[in-house]
Amino acid sequence: MRAPHPDGADAEPWPARAEELLTEHAQRYGALVRAWRAAYDMQQMAESEASTEPPEPVPGLPDAVADQEAARHRLWQDTGKQRAELAAGHTADVHQRAVHAARAYAVATLAGFHAVVSGADPVAVMQGPDDTDAWDEPPLTLPAATGIHAIDDEIKRLHAKAVGRPVKRRGPAPTQKRVRRSYWWEEKKPARPADPGVTLADLAKCLHGHMAGGELVRRLDPGRGAAG
């Protein structure tokens, strides 16, 4: 059984505070993505309602009643337009917040990963989601290599996507998948765009996964990770 580090939890090879910081980042980004999806879906639904064609007039219906139906439809369109405008503003705002959160998550995991590889204190180089400044975001620097090729290659690939410089593919191009034929009776719904900051988040989740629970520490230095 491992004994606690004599200098406290934050002196452990993988400090508890380091895990807490990364979990806070992951939760913040996830919450913002869910909020963005909700706002986006509301915007699409409201825009559809705002552009709905009025129903065909019913033969024999008194003009006064037909006017009532038309008034209700106009109200439905007007409220749909208002909700669409409100949701559009929310969608844009939350999108920006989510991208910032994804970048902050990536910055924290990159810093922590580099610290673990170099034997430094990860807590000393990581910030929580509430401590980052959107106007002073550090660059997304590729961390030091671990020497474990599977990990290093995965991180290099995800980092390249996150910074917009995809790694060139080696070997033959992948075979394109056949697109399933669609039929007239199948309703086609527009696909929601990719989640904001998804490439940054993919990098952060990968790094976080390797560090979680001190896994990377144990792989790089089994004696240090199991000390106690």
TrEMBL record:
Q: Which domain of life is it from?
A: Bacteria
Q: Region Disordered: start and end of each range?
A: 45-72
* Protein name per the record: Uncharacterized protein
Origin species, per record, is Actinoplanes siamensis
